[in-house]
UniProtKB/TrEMBL annotation:
PANTHER family: AMIDOHYDROLASE-RELATED DOMAIN-CONTAINING PROTEIN (PTHR43794:SF11), AMINOHYDROLASE SSNA-RELATED (PTHR43794). This is Cytosine/adenosine deaminase-related metal-dependent hydrolase. The keyword Hydrolase applies. It comes from Pseudorhodoferax soli. Residues 69-421 form the Amidohydrolase-related domain.
Amino acid sequence: MNPATPLLILRHADVLVTMDDQRREIRDGAVVVQGPAIAWVGTSDALPAPYAEALAAGRAEAVDLHGHVLMPGLVNTHHHMYQSLTRAVPEAQDAELFGWLGSLYPLWARLTPEMVHVSARTAMAELLLSGCTTTSDHLYLYPNGSRLEDAIEGAAAMGMRFHAARGSMSVGRSAGGLPPDEVVEREDAILADSQRLIERWHDPARHAMLRIVLAPCSPFSVSRDLMRASAELARATGVSLHTHLAENDNDIAYSREKFGMTPAEYAEDLGWVGRDVWHAHCVKLDEAGIRLFGRTGTGVAHCPCSNMRLASGIAPVGAMRRAGVPVGLGVDGSASNDGAHMLGEARQALLLARVGFGPAAMTAREALEIATRGGAQVLGRDDIGALAPGMSADLVAFDLRGVGHAGAGHDPVAALVFCQPAHAALSVVNGRVRVRDGHLVDCDTAPLLARHRVLAQQLVEAARHPHTA
Ligand SMILES: [Zn+2]
């Protein structure tokens, strides 16, 4: 024990959900955090002497978690944070995917760097308060001088572990794609910026707070060449790949018509399968696709709220997991899931699985496992998603003493999923407390939300009245 490294001791949690390889749940649980990593996990009365002595001598910070469930921080594998500016936009409220995109692309074309930055910070505030400690963000529009750095700097300010996905669109409407020409980029510029971002920011080390991901937006907005070139660049530099795939019936029809293949066949043809690849949605992944993904370890970001909101369908998550497909959870962009609550997303995953496949389709503990270990696996990380010595110190605690969990003490772990989604009482990311007593630390949310409100209004008004803006 290096006395110079700060010690944080969390103890007396009603239940400590480790999500370790044995899936241990420890009553009266305690965790010792030393610097960015977990040093020890066990029962509170078994705290090793050096830590107990450090506590007694005032050399450690202690947090009492009576009445709380303590667990690994939730991992969000799919989001578009800029969409927090276009929640509940009336003309996009009741459409399916392609119609929804058609309504929103012109608005998003007016994004500015400040909008990207402020919306990323706002989205991360929401995620942190919902129990999420690691998030990906798929940013695929760069209008008006916006850069991925606008989101990266937001993550640094919020202290969240971040997988920044350099998205892209290159096939505009005039070339047979879905997005308007004004929001697509040249492919050589996309690849050059991708290379620049990897060299500048990607951290492959254990406990990394920032990794870069290459993420051409979807089969209907980029070319085969860009998909292939992105895969080559990702493999040459050791970064992951991410895109949208097999989201709904129109998406399947587009793939059959343009490429003569199912989305899974198309992904395989492009080299977009493997442990370093994860695809969002996969609602319509067929049996052969599930076998392919299982065989190759290709991951899926399951986004139940978004899939319901856009009436895309019910992803066959149980079949995927039985076939060995890594599955994580994603809240998806705030315009297709207007509430980005990670614990709430786990609850919806359970409920939707049961609507589709019966009451045994998903247990509460499976939902929590997908939201933690599953997400870590999908992002290609072995240092988050479980609480054990040597793992990154990403932890969240939920206080179950409120009215929303009254009477649920029979099984507090299941109650996290079955009862109303709780807000995080405590959140620790990389050993730093980010949420304490249910409030963000080092973040004044009032001015942040005030600015977000102004920018959201500017964005939508400017698109509605383009000549007066
Ligand atoms: Zn998405």
